[in-house]
Amino acid sequence: MDKFGFTLVKGRRIDYDSNDRSIAEYVSAHEPSFRICIECGCCSAACTTGNFTQFSLREIQILLKRGENDGVRDKIKKCMLCGKCTLVCPRGVNTRNVILLIQEAFRKNIKNAV
Amino acid sequence: MQFDPFVIPFNIGLYFILIYAVVRSVRWFSNLSRPDKLRLQRGFFGSAFGRSLKEIFMESLIHRKILKANFRLGYMHMSLAFGWFLLILFGTIEADIFGTRHLNPPYKAIFFKFFNPDHGRTGFEAVYSFLMDLILAFILSGLILAVIKRFSSKVVGMKKTTKLKLPDKIALTSLWLIFPSRLIAESLTSGVYGTGSFLTGSLGSVLASFLPANQLAYPFWWLYSLSLGTFFLLLPVTRYMHIPTELFLIFARNSGIRTGDQSGAFTEIQTYSCSSCGICIDACQLNFSTGITNIQSAYLMKGIRNNEDVNDIAFNCLMCGRCDRYCPVGIELTPIRMIRRRAESVEPPEKSLWSRYFPDLIKIVNTRSNGHPAFSWLPQIKTEATEVLYYAGCMTHLTPAIKKAMIRILDASGMNYRFLDEAGGVCCGRPLMLAGKDKEARELINFNSGLIRDSGARILVTSCPICYKVFRESYYLEVELMHHTQFIKMLIDEDMLRLRFLRKKVVYHAPCDLGRGSGIYDEPKDVLRHVARLQPTGFDDDDSLCCGGSLGNTRISYRQKNKIAADAASALTKGNPEILATACPLCKKTFTTVTDTRVADIAEIVAEAIAPNPPELKKHVVKELYREPADMI
Ligand code: SF4
Ligand code: SF4
Ligand code: SF4
Ligand code: SF4
Ligand code: SF4
User: Fold this and answer.
1) CA B546, CA B102: separation in Å to the nearest integer?
2) What is the sign of the dihedral through the CA atoms of B234, B238, B242 and B245?
3) All domains of chain A, ordered by start, with CATH?
4) How do residues B414-442 score in pLDDT, each as one tens digit?
5) Residues B199/B204/B210/B213 CA torsion (nearest 10 deg)
6) CA-CA distances (angstroms) from residue B469 to B464, B520, B601?
7) Which of B9, B246, B311, B451 could form a disulfide with B229 if both were Cys (CB 3.0 to 4.6 A apart)?
8) Of B465, B479, B589, B476, whose CA–CA distance to B521 is shortest?
9) Residue B586 CA: which ligand 5 atom is closest?
10) Please, is B245 exposed, middle or buried when counting C-beta atoms within 10 Å of its C-beta (0-12, 13-18, 19+)?
């Protein structure tokens, strides 16, 4: 307890300069409601896939917006497109289209996408 | 004397289109799958042949369905198609009995007046001329409507009319010119000779009184022949290709050929059969509620025909099936859209003139999948053996009232049941299919099928029409599948559920996937009538509206969905019912936010009506119907 205050843990630092936000940009260009997500997590709470796995749409949206695309390509495939997230979202984010667009962006290998 | 060079354009056009129609038909036939070929052959020599002829007469000539849907539009189509048919038929007869010889080439009948200008002065000849004039007037009246429709579609009672391409425009102009030029040519000739009946005769004498009719008639006969020839020559590359194609389609459909879930010759025939009548545009809620007017099936058909990139069109649709219901040609529009959804966007290829006339077979190629299973992480779940298996479905978990009501009903029925996805299950796979991801959907289907099979259940009950449809169409199950409305109906009929009458005014919204999608209309209404006062809405059975919440559309926004829902809800609650009843958890959820009327699933209403002290249940019925398996308790 000798140090009071905040330190920057290297592993948790978000480096916006080197991160690749192309996927997030692709998605928001085609589905503007991607931008209005408040990361509340209702979608993850209702999620059918989330019932079985660690899958979280909220997490994925945050990662993409930060440009930390690693691993999202495989994660996003787990969604069953059931649509519960769309129904519970308080902001009216068109989540199913967001998910489809993320998948499409990875399939099309949008710039730098892993 | 019996030949004149002006008939040449007409002759070229006519023989071209006849040969072309045969060549295209042979190509379509050879592209059909083997079983479909057999079906068509059998249909051609069986009772389907008569039915087809009748349908061709009723739909392709009279346009009965359009007449029923919209009289003015139907009249327009009928006068052009049926009128033209009559003109050709009676013209041929006229040429045969009054001409110099029997069995004339077609041009003799079409240009009869030119070759027999003196015909029709007295007696039977005059009566026949009167008939021919009457038919021509009939066609012209429809033509006037068509011209007005092009400029103001409201006149024929349509809100939207389809947009045209250049060849379509030329073909349309020549089509429009055919009958007026015939009228003027015949009138002028009649004017010179003092023949003709009430139309051509009167117009002819008026024109001849101040014009040099003798010199003018000849150019108009040329115009008549040229416009016929141009129309026939352009027909294959315009939407008018639907005229010959529809005949083939009617034979194929009556022989039992269906779209299925693969693209093939039948899909192609159907896309060419669309007449761009625009009825599907008027029927579409995306049009009249949200003002989206470029994605309707007319445009999908046109886009597929022209090899355009229709990805955005294909996905921006509720898959509600309203257009299928209203399409007068009976094209299976939603199945075709479903097939198209599985394909990636395509680059429209360069089109040569040759490929316009002889396009490659429309092939809709599925998106390549990387072959890795997407859902290999699904857990191993053991299901316990049971008689009745209840699968609530994802959506029902978001509307717990329906789930609770169903449990109440199942408990009250005294049946031996298990709740398959009590702790949340795996999606049924239809949402993935609607997004064109069939491979992934198959994995979920296999997973769920395993669970259902392991339970040994005899009856599978589901609360969600979306699940119901995919269970019915894409699962291979040996259980009896029931939507909960069917199940409740059975319980009532078997006297396993005693219900009070609620004295409430209800209206029923038929969910798309349950009604138009699966053909279940009566059971939900029977159940409602049993417990409440069911009122008609004007949007009953296959006329029902979509709630807008459909999983079929990933493109429209939250606001647009709400607009569709609000419009639908206000249309349904016009009669101020106490309850807006539905049979779909998604419909319920969508409607609840947009109306003040109470929205409830049929299961909830039934659960409410369960008599407080359940009378003695007829246990023997239970035993008879459902024998307990040996390994149960
Ligand atoms: S529910 Fe909506 S707003 Fe909340 S995290 Fe999910 S997408 Fe974002
Ligand atoms: S659509 Fe996908 S992310 Fe949304 S709730 Fe269903 S499984 Fe979860
Ligand atoms: S799809 Fe059917 S309703 Fe729509 S324009 Fe074509 S023929 Fe008419
Ligand atoms: S299925 Fe429904 S939403 Fe789609 S085009 Fe047809 S009427 Fe419109
Ligand atoms: S939610 Fe209901 S009305 Fe809407 S598409 Fe589905 S079944 Fe049809």
Assistant:
1) 59
2) positive
3) 22-108 (1.10.1060.10)
4) 999 999 998 888 999 999 999 999 889 99
5) 150
6) 9, 10, 18
7) B9
8) B465
9) 1
10) buried
Tell me B4's DSSP state. Answer: -
Which of B379, B397, B432 is the closest to A52 by Cβ?
B379
Q: Which of B376, B428, B375 is nearest to B397 (CA)?
A: B428
Inspect the interface and report whether the beta carbons of A80 and B586 lie closer than 8 Å. no
Q: What is the pLDDT of residue B307?
A: 83
Tell me whether residues A33 and B557 touch, CB distance under 8 A.
Answer: yes
- Tokens 């008689």, located at residue: B387
- The answer to whether the B258-365 and B505-609 domains have the same CATH topology is no
Report the pLDDT value the prediction gives residue A91, as an integer from 0 to 100: 94
B415: nearest Cα among B459, B350, B367? B459
Tokens for B512?
Answer: 């798309």
- Ligand 2 atom closest to residue A81's alpha carbon, by position in its atom list: 1
Residues B545 and B518: beta-carbon distance below 8 Å: no
Domain ranges of chain B: 5-239, 258-365, 388-493, 505-609
CATH of domain B258-365: 1.10.1060
pLDDT for B295:
95
Ligand 1 pocket by Cβ (under 6 Å): A 37-43, 57-58, 89-91, 93, 95
pLDDT score of B378: 87
Rounded to the nearest whole angstrom, what is the distance from the C-alpha of residue B294 to the centroid of ligand 1? 30
* 3-class secondary structure, B457: coil
Which chain B residues are closer than 8 Å to A88 by Cβ? 398
Query: Which pLDDT value is given to residue B346?
Result: 66
Helix (H, G, I), strand (E, B) or coil at A4: coil
Element (H, E) at B534: strand B533-535
Percent of chain A with pLDDT over 90: 62
pLDDT at A41 over 80: yes
Count of CB atoms situated within 10 Å of the CB of B592 = 16
Q: How confident is the model at residue B622, as a pLDDT?
A: 47
CA-based nearest residue to B480, from B458, B463, B464: B458
Architecture of domain B505-609 in this structure: 3-Layer(aba) Sandwich (3.40)
Measured at the CA of B367, the angle between CA B311 and CA B32, to 5 degrees, comes to: 90
Higher per-residue pLDDT: A69 or B524: B524
pLDDT at position B98, please?
86
| Cα A54 from Cα B292, distance rounded (Å) | 38
Query: Predicted ipTM?
Result: 0.88
DSSP string, B166-191: HHHHHHHHHHHHHHHHHHHHHHHHHH
Tell which residue, B336, B304, B367, B309, has the closest CA to residue A104.
Answer: B367
Contact B558 A33 (CB under 8 A): yes
Number of residues that this document lists for chain B: 633
Flag residues of chain B having pLDDT under 70: 1, 153-164, 345-351, 367-371, 613-633
